[in-house]
Write a structure and sequence with these properties.
Elements: H1 5-36, H2 41-44, H3 46-60, H4 75-98, H5 102-124, H6 138-168, H7 173-178, H8 181-201, H9 203-221, H10 230-257, H11 264-294, H12 305-308, H13 310-315, H14 318-350, H15 358-361
Helix pairs in contact: 1-8, 1-10, 4-5, 4-11, 6-10, 6-11, 6-14, 8-9, 8-10, 9-10, 9-14, 10-11, 11-14
Length: about 375
């Protein structure tokens, strides 16, 4: 909203650099706090940081007053969206943890009912909360689809790589956080380059290269077992970060540039919303695959958490510990295959993106 078309790529690159630096420092600090203090400090440490950030916004952000357009806030649409998304996320979480139970089914059913209510409410709203008409724009709809598959690949890594490092390879929380650094550095590097570059060569080539890199990353991660090295995990994550940096930020800019200026907020929020919801489904599927694959292989009376807890781990017999690690590695093999599928699906959806430079594809308002 603050910058014209030519400046958005540059500014998104700077934002990505700040985010990337924080993402490198964050896991390292979190790992140190978890190893040496308590996992609760991972939350406590953010309280002063949040207060500082809010203070900076309050003091430094000067924004001109906007004139009243006379539009009414779509409260009903907001409530139905929140209800449908919240119930759906809760159902996915329960499916991930405990399988298909009556409560899980009830949450899914309530989510569908709320979604139906949302459709009815949006038909009557003069200014709908969910801007469905944006999906008629090819650049927007194909960009959202490709970005959603890329988000599955992202969530797969951030959710399960640390589990692999700790439960299978026996790494500390600090070392597990450190293995994500190559992914973040690759993301920052490519995001800073790709976002401005998209104005000249277009979004399609960047998305194709990015999803090809993500696919290659999971092709390398999927075969890893209980005897992989740190480097064998870090190299694919570096490729994954470079791939995601070539896709997620440029396609967010594509969504913003594809719509009139008054729809910038709708395009940005709807893009992020779709990515999050699709990624939630992906993580739920991964959790089910992990549980179903791992359960028959686990030694009787033991739980995967027994490998994560250093005290419990030290009390286990080497053969028992090896059996648990092999069981979790087998489950994570299926999880990383989901990431591989997301990479392939994202590559195919990138083929549908319109050709042309970012400038040529931009909506002129």
């Amino acid at each position: 909203d603050l910058y014209p078309l030519e400046e958005r790529g540059k500014m998104q690159g700077l934002v990505a650099a700040v985010w990337g630096f924080s993402s490198i420092v964050g896991p390292l600090v979190g790992g140190v706090l978890t190893d040496h203090l308590s996992w609760r400090w991972v939350f406590f440490v953010n309280v002063p940081i949040g207060v500082l950030a809010a203070s900076i916004v309050q003091i430094a952000w000067k924004e001109p007053a906007r004139r009243n357009t006379g539009r009414r806030v779509d409260v009903a649409g907001a409530v139905f969206t929140l209800s449908a998304a919240g119930l759906f996320m809760a159902a996915c979480a329960m499916l991930n943890r405990g399988g298909l139970s009556p409560v899980t089914i009830a949450c899914f059913a309530a989510s569908v009912a709320a979604a139906a209510g949302l459709v009815l409410a949006e038909r009557r709203a003069s200014d709908p909360f969910i801007a469905y008409e944006l999906f008629r724009i090819k650049l927007f709809s194909t960009g959202v689809a490709c970005g959603a598959f890329a988000s599955i690949a992202l969530f797969c890594a951030t959710t399960y790589i640390t589990l692999y490092m700790q439960a299978v390879l026996g790494s500390s929380a600090q070392a597990s956080g450190f293995v994500l650094v190559p992914m973040t550095m690759g993301w920052v590097l490519m995001s800073g380059v790709a976002s401005p570059l998209s104005l000249h060569i277009g979004y399609r080539p960047l998305a194709l290269v990015g999803m090809a890199l993500a696919t290659a990353a999971y092709a390398l991660l999927a075969p890893l077992g209980a005897h992989a090295t740190w480097l064998q995990v870090a190299v694919p994550l570096g490729l994954l970060g470079m791939g995601l940096g070539s896709v997620l930020t440029p396609l967010l800019i594509a969504a913003q540039n594809a719509v009139p200026k008054e729809k910038l907020g709708s395009a940005t929020s709807l893009t992020q919303f779709c990515r999050t919801m699709v990624a939630a489904v992906g993580v739920a599927v991964m959790g089910v695959i992990l549980t179903v694959t791992m359960a028959p292989r686990m030694p009787a009376g033991l739980h995967p958490d027994d490998v994560l807890n250093a005290i419990k781990r030290s009390s286990l017999a080497p053969q028992t510990l090896a059996s648990i690690r092999d069981a979790i590695a087998a489950g994570l093999h299926g999880v990383f295959l989901v990431g591989l599928f997301a990479g392939v699906a994202g590559f195919l959806s990138a083929l549908l993106l319109p050709r042309g430079s970012g400038r040529a594809l931009a909506h002129r308002s």
